[in-house]
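Write out this protein's structure.
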Amino acid sequence: MLSSRPSDTGTAKGSGTTGPSGAAAPSVIAAASGTDTSRAIALLGSVRYGRLAMSMRALPFLAVARHLVIEGRVVLRMHRGLGFHESCDGSVVAYGADNFNAPVAGDGSGRILGDTSTGTPGGTGGASSASTREGTSGLWSVQFTGPVEIMEPAPGQRERFGTGPAEVNGERFDPVYLRLDPHLAHMHTLSFGASPSGRTRSVT
């Protein structure tokens, strides 16, 4: 179970107990501080898609988006036909991504991060290598909060997004782009198999 508790130091200790099926529960869950935004940015750049949290017609809403990190800002690509960009433009939103589909040793799946024999979405690719580079061997999630606005990327930036889906909900895909200026960043990590007394450095 992923949870965190606010504290003056920005850290929260896990129980280090055993989870279902004998799997080791996360021993430490790191909450946010203001020291390692670059780590969170690097991890965000290792996956392609995330979830945009916003308010639509006075109700909370989640929407999937393709993202890139460009000059310290998070640039999102969405389908224009859904109208989410209009609800977001000029407001403060949160955007998050994770590697929760990646198998990790000790989580009860019998597989490890980077195992290419399973064919799972998290079994290969940039998320595993970025986690290793950033010293995060388990599962992680990152979240960025700040103002967002509609923007038009430069031709070279548009190409970096790659080919979009052919259709979204039966409509021909029509891309629109948003730029999020991250004023606040959070990173949470789940480490399996660590000793109950272990701690991780809190990051953002």
